[in-house]
Structure formats: structure tokens, C-alpha cells
């Protein structure tokens, strides 16, 4: 059977990122958080924009003050006071200084700032009590960034720090990729909607809600197509419709070996190309991955029906695909942390096994606490309040308490 890493590689290979011309839109900076930059950004501004002071103190000529000490202070005449935001008028001549504040423009001919704590003031004169270093406490124009060079590359997610940089660079509008469209439907004759009364044998379609939340959290747009009966005609219709409107299609259920598991047969009859039908993973083994016959080759994930399988296969396989299609240029694959396990973790030693639980910070070190209760793929109750999946690779049947374990942190970086 296909290993998890081989399945991952096949999937990422199938994903075509959104087009950097056709699949973009312009958004206001305030609406740009979490979006993916489609064009590199260049600024016409240098950073800092001007030579300015990094301290409250005195702007001086280094030559004048290089031999200063508390025993033999240099005495300078103060010719101007320069608060932040003001343009200095004077040129500092030998023997002169300007009172200056943090962020204020350096006056002409001054090259160094002496911090206020190393001076003594007497009316219009300042005593320099220690020799500064040449150019000390001056932030030089363009020393952080040079106008005209690349400020931010295309293909990155805009987080807080990028938004701040773009604001400072006076970029009020950005060219970003449109959100990938992800169609979601649930299959099963036993499923009812969240607000419908349950008859014996029925269960509520929770997967639709789980997948909608996961897709939205990943920055993509969920398109909810509801519950579809285990009937070939209905399935064919919804898959054809989904292929026409979405970049990625997610279904849950109907991909196992039961008599009513029609998804793979329908994909075949629609002439979809099936790339994966099972992966060596627990939970989540019956996973179908196909490309649908439409001009934009939408990627189809037939996820297993059980709720824990949906969660694990989404984090392990679907999220990397959404990231790549979004236009992000690197870091698609999940990042695993090495942490200490609080509990004994067991698997059958064959399939790559994922156990859900919670990371706790103990004296600054992460510790994985396995969720109590059943780790059956049908149990979703103990998924609540978890934030990590611990991984036991094939061949590793036991991790003892305090032993190191790899975990997938359930946050979208
Ligand atoms: P299946 O692979 O279609 O046989 O689904 C396996 C099991 O997953 C079913 O027996 C249901 O208990 C459960 N299941 C399937 N679809 C959903 C859904 N949309 N929401 C919650 N549980 C589901
Ligand atoms: Mg089913």
C-alpha cells in the first residue's frame, strides 16, 4: 500500500497553483491579512527614509567630541532643537551641537548622536562627558531597505508583520491570489442535516461542518453542496457540478469497500483519473485522490466517512494541497514538532498512526497529552479541545511516557 509520504508527494505533484495573472484580485490593506501575495512588492521609499537619531541626546560632529571624558568634557554650543517630525535648519559647525530626540532628522554636518545620559546641560551649552563611537546612534537612510529593490516576494502569506511593512511602505492596495474554491459534500443514506430530527439508524452530517471550518481556516472558500444519497445518479450529478465550480472537491464517505461505496465507480465512469485509492495511514486508509475531467483539472479528495479520519486526512493531505493551490511558493508540507509524550502511545506497528491530543507547556517545554477515551475513527467526541496529532511511524508500536514523539500542531502557519 502507498506510504503516507509517497501519497503526499503524488498529491503535491498533481496540484497546479492558481495563475498569477488570471487568478488574482486587488484588496485593501486592511482586508489583506491572511491572503497570499500574487506580485512582488517594491517600494519607492528608503527605510529609514532619512538619517535620523536613535536616541534622545545631542547631534554632534564626531571630530569635536572624540576625546571627551567626564574629567575633560567637551563643551559645545547648542544651536537648534530638533523634535521628531521637524526639519532642521542649521548646519552644525565645529564647536556646535543640536538638541535632538528619537526619530528626529539629523542636522547637516552632524554625524553622531551622544545620548542624553552621557551629557550635562548648562543653559545653551552641553558638556559631553564620554567619547561616543563614530556615527553612534544614527540610523542611516536606506540602511534597513533600499528603494526600488524587492520588499516582499510573491507567494507569501500576509501576516501581521507583512501588513505593518506594507503600511509603512505606503501600499494601500495589494494584488493577491483569489481564494481557492473548495466544494464540499457528504455522502450517505444515514446522514441528516444538523437541524433535522434523527430517525433510528441516522446520524448527523458533522463532516460538512468540520470541513467547512477547516477550509475557511486555511484561507480558502468553502462551497457547501450538502448531503448526497448513496445513489450513482445523485453522486454523478454532484461531482460534475462540483468539478465545474471548484478548484478542489472534498467528499466524505463512500470510498470504502462496502456495497454502497460508489464514489470510485462514479469517478471511473466520469473518466476521472484516479491516482490514489488507499494509504497506509490510521485513521484514514480508504482515501481516494483523483483529477476530474474539466479544463482546470480540479483535484478530488474522496475522504473516508469517519469523523476522525476526515480530520487526519485533511491535515495530512488536503491542507498541503490547498496551500500549494493558494499560490504559496514553499512550506506546503506539515511541520512536525518533536515533543515529550506524557502518555503511553500505541499503534498496531504497521500503519502510520495518528493519535489526537493536546500540547501542554510544562516549564517551557511542550508535552503531548493523548485525549482520553476511545481513539476509534468513529469517535469525534474526544476530538474537542485537542490541538495536535501525535504520529507513530510504521514499525513503531509503542512510545513510552516521557519518550520523544513527533506531533503535528493543528494550527495553520
Ligand atoms: P462510509 O465510508 O461511507 O461507510 O462511512 C463510514 C462511517 O463514517 C459511517 O458509518 C458513518 O458513521 C460515518 N460518517 C459518514 N459520513 C459522515 C458525515 N458526513 N458526518 C459524520 N459521520 C459520517
Ligand atoms: Mg457511507
Can you tell me about this structure?
This protein has 413 residues and is of the alpha/beta class. It has 4 domains: 4-18 and 178-325, MoaB/Mog-like domain (Molybdenum Cofactor Biosythetic Enzyme, Chain A, 3-Layer(aba) Sandwich), CATH 3.40.980; 24-45 and 157-177, no CATH class; 52-139, Beta Complex (Molybdopterin biosynthesis moeA protein, domain 3), CATH 2.170.190; 335-409, Beta-clip (Beta Barrel), CATH 2.40.340.10. It is built from 7 helices and 28 strands. The chain has helices spanning 4-14, 62-65, 160-168, 206-217, 232-245, 263-269, 307-325; strands spanning 24-28, 41-42, 52-53, 57-60, 74-82, 96-100, 112-115, 119-122, 125-128, 138-139, 150-152, 173-177, 181-187, 191-192, 203-204, 221-228, 248-252, 273-276, 281-282, 288-291, 299-303, 336-341, 345-346, 352-362, 365-370, 388-392, 398-399, 404-409. A 6-stranded mixed sheet has the order 7-4-6-5-9-8. A 6-stranded mixed sheet has the order 16-13-17-21-20-18, sandwiched between helices. A hairpin with a 2-residue loop joins strand 8 (119-122) and strand 9 (125-128). The two termini are 30 Å apart. The mean pLDDT is 97. It binds adenosine monophosphate and magnesium ion. Magnesium ion is lined by residues 187-188, 230, 253-254, 260, 305.
